Amino acid sequence: MHSRSAALTPPLGFDPELFPNLPNGYDGNIYDSEAAALAAAKQAVFGPSGIHAALSLEQICGGVYISADLSFVAGGGAGEINFFDSGTYPLANFPGMSILFFKAIKGVCIDGRIARTLDVAYAPGYILRCTQTSVANISLSGPSETRPSGTGGSAVATLTAKVTDSTAPKAGVAVQFSVDVTPNSGGHEHHDAARLKGTLSGTQGITDANGEVKVTFIATEVAGTHTVKATCATCANSPATKEIQVKVPDLLPISPNAPQNADGTFVYALTSVDKTHQGNGRYHHNQYYLTEQSRQNLRAMISDFAAEGWGTVALNDASLYWGGRYDITSNWKAPHAGHREGREIDISFARAGNPISAPKQKVFYDKFCKNKKVSFPFSILHHYVKNPHFHVYLEKQTACWTSEK
């Protein structure tokens, strides 16, 4: 804010010589607020205290005011000002401007004593204009979700930081970007410095004519919640943040409450409870998630297995509830090459108290895969030496094969 001298039209029609003129040092100064500007005006008129000093009767009778004060009359139709004993005076003003207004009480003396008082009003011609710097604000917008890398579809999200001055875009503003990942998010119930997190296409930029600067977030193979931060040194609300969930969408759980056969045995059992696989154990509590199509195909597969006398089907690992890399040893590495999209599951031979003999494994594999005597919408990888199990592709795949590992 600042004040400056300006002629009032029409001028106030009473004797300005009776009233003080503000020092030139006040004219044109810059102030942070209207209160600061008013305080400076009072100090200019009344001295360092900014308060009209108490006077002696001799001073009052000599023409000095009994009391005096300054105020601002705000713009936008300030209305009528009362002064002297001649009624009111219309004072026009403009929005965003204030007129410095002097008001005092004058004593009229007879024989060295105050016979009566007069109210005095005076506008010394100083106008306060609001030149307050408008406040810049920053926002960060863009997608709230993207897929983990390696799971098909887009693994990037383009975000836009926008700086506005009131409602207008502000060009030429420096913006810095950073990203972090929320611990224990995305189904990974462990966290350390080795955890992979998304990256950004850049860490800084300058807003264009639209007040915008863009940055691209690139997801990793590990699902989780990331927060991108946009920082602007001159923005009142800095930093602005945007949360991005890195996930395979719409994965659904396999119910832990398996139905029972007529003989009381369970149709399937969720079995990853040992420390090797970490299911329902130390770190990963939610690794039985599939797409809806895979869940349907799994039910069909279990029915086909039951018809072949399989017994209780032991379900090992599917996908974490947001998909992405499933680090079964909780070290962010990927011994499970698949298990990322909710379309694959492991079938155990020994877990669930239903071991399947090696000959029966071979017969089963030959019938379902080699000889194709049973039609089903999935394919099987038979791991048959170390920890024998089937890795079942519930969607997309059609071939079957074996592995000695």
TrEMBL record:
Source organism, top-level taxon: Bacteria
Membrane-crossing ranges are none
InterPro entries, per the entry? Ig-like_fold (IPR013783), Invasin/intimin_cell_adhesion (IPR008964), Zn_M74/Hedgehog-like (IPR009045)
- The protein here is known as Big-1 domain-containing protein
UniProt organism field: Rhodoferax lithotrophicus
Taxonomy, top ranks, is: Bacteria, Pseudomonadati, Pseudomonadota, Betaproteobacteria, Burkholderiales
